[in-house]
Design a protein that fits this description.
Blueprint (H helix, E strand, L loop, with lengths): L1 H8 L6 H7 L7 H13 L1 H5 L2 H9 L1 H15 L1
Helix pairs in contact: 1-3, 2-3, 3-6, 5-6
């Protein structure tokens, strides 16, 4: 729980995507994933402008699609 708290305090456009990719639906760090999804929702343009997003689109397209679906779900 302490690690989760520290990571949420250090969330940035550079590491948000990495945290999303490493905390899948059944990951025990539920709160970290929830925070990362919310961070992505608020700063999606900035996160998607990073090199990390471009690399993820190439190497993990299905995960990027899942993230975008979650974003849309929050907006509806």
């Amino acid at each position: 729980m302490e690690c989760e708290t520290q990571l949420t305090h250090r969330m940035s456009t550079e590491n948000c995507l990495e945290l999303l990719l490493n905390t899948h639906e059944q990951h025990p760090a539920f709160h970290l994933r929830k925070f990362a999804v919310e961070y992505f929702r608020l700063f999606s343009g900035e996160v998607m402008a990073t090199n990390e997003w471009e690399k993820a689109e190439q190497s993990h397209p299905e995960l990027c699609l899942t993230i975008l679906k979650k974003l849309v779900k929050f907006l509806v």
